[in-house]
Specification:
Blueprint lengths: L2 E6 L17 E5 L6 H12 L2 E4 H14 L7 H10 L2 E6 L4 E5 L2 E2 L7 H11 L2 H12 L7 E5 L2 H5 L5 E6 L2 H14 L6 H17 L12 E4 L5 H15 L5
Parallel strand pairs: 2-7, 2-8, 3-7, 8-9
Antiparallel strand pairs: 1-4, 4-5, 5-6
Helix pairs in contact: 1-9, 2-3, 2-4, 3-5, 4-8, 7-8
Bound molecules: 2'-deoxycytidine-5'-monophosphate (DC).
C-alpha cells in the first residue's frame, strides 16, 4: 500500500514555542458530534490548500493506545504519558483514502467506532491529557494555513484564530447523519441508540470542567440542519475570504 505522509506528529525533538505561530492563518471549526465538522473541515482545507487537524482523532488515539498499553481507565497521568509518546501518522493510501497509523499499525477503522468515540470522550475530560496534546496540536499550524476541527479549537488551542466557526445541527439530524456514515462503513447501529449516545457524549463534553464544548465568544454559529454540505462549505469559504486577508 502506497502511503503518503501529510503530517507526522511524532514528538518534536527540539523545544517548540508554547503557542502557534500567529502569522499562520487558522480556521477553527468546533461543534458537537455529528454536526458535520469533520466533512466540512476536510472540504474547506482542500479548497484552500490548507493543512487539516482532526483533533478528535488524537483523543481517540490516546484512548486506544492507553488500552493497548494497559493503562487503567482512570489513570490521568498514565494517559498523559501515552499522549506525549503517541507515534502517529496521518496520510492517504494509494486509493486516496485517509489512513491513520499508530506505531506503524493501521488503526483507521478501529478509532472510528462508537465505542472508540466514547472512550475518547472519557480521556478528553482528563486535564493532563489535554495539556499533553496542546503543543502537538499547535505543531499542525504550518504554512499556508490550517483548518482545525474539534471542540476547543477556538476557545483553547487556537484562541487567536481570525475565523472561528461553531457548527451545530439538531440532535435528530446529527443521529441520522452519523447513522448513514457508519452504515456506509459497514457498521451496524440503530438511530435510537445513536441519538442516546450523542446526547450522552454532548453532555459529557459540554459539562466537563476543562475545555468544555462551547462556542468561543467571537465564533460564528452555523446551524447546518437542512443545509447541504456544499451550502455549509460555501458559507465557511465566504467567511474565510472576508476574514483572512491572504485568501481572495
Ligand atoms: O470529534 P470526535 O468525535 O472524533 O471526538 C472524539 C471525542 O474527543 C469527543 O467525544 C470529544 C473529544 N474531543 C475533545 O474533547 N476535544 C477536541 N478538540 C476534539 C475531540
Amino acid at each position: 500500500m502506497a502511503f503518503v505522509i501529510h503530517a507526522v506528529t511524532a514528538l518534536p525533538t527540539i523545544p517548540q514555542p508554547p503557542s502557534p505561530n500567529p502569522l499562520i492563518p487558522v480556521i477553527a471549526i468546533d461543534g458537537p458530534s455529528g454536526s458535520g465538522k469533520g466533512t466540512i473541515a476536510r472540504r474547506v482545507a482542500t479548497a484552500l490548500g490548507f493543512h487539516l487537524l482532526d483533533s478528535g482523532a488524537l483523543y481517540r488515539l490516546v484512548a486506544l493506545a492507553g488500552s493497548q498499553q494497559g493503562v487503567a481507565a482512570d489513570d490521568q497521568q498514565g494517559h498523559a504519558r501515552v499522549a506525549r509518546g503517541l507515534e502517529v501518522q496521518f496520510g492517504m493510501d494509494g486509493a486516496g483514502e485517509e489512513r491513520v497509523l499508530l506505531a506503524g499499525t493501521d488503526v483507521t477503522r478501529a478509532i472510528r467506532t462508537e465505542a472508540a468515540g466514547a472512550e475518547a470522550s472519557r480521556v478528553a475530560a482528563m486535564p493532563p491529557v489535554r495539556t499533553a496534546l496542546l503543543s502537538r496540536q499547535h505543531a499542525f499550524a504550518q504554512p499556508p494555513g490550517l483548518v482545525a476541527d474539534g471542540r476547543d479549537m477556538g476557545t483553547v488551542v487556537f484562541p487567536g484564530s481570525p475565523l472561528k466557526i461553531y457548527l451545530t445541527a439538531s440532535p435528530e439530524e446529527r443521529a441520522r447523519r452519523r447513522h448513514k456514515q457508519l452504515k456506509d462503513k459497514g457498521l451496524t447501529v440503530t438511530i435510537a441508540g445513536l441519538s442516546q449516545e450523542i446526547r450522552e457524549r454532548d453532555l459529557r463534553d459540554s459539562s466537563r470542567p476543562v475545555a468544555p464544548l462551547r462556542p468561543a465568544e467571537d465564533a460564528v454559529i452555523l446551524d447546518s440542519t437542512g443545509l447541504t454540505i456544499e451550502q455549509v462549505v460555501d458559507q465557511v469559504l465566504a467567511l474565510a475570504r472576508s476574514r483572512l486577508p491572504a485568501i481572495s
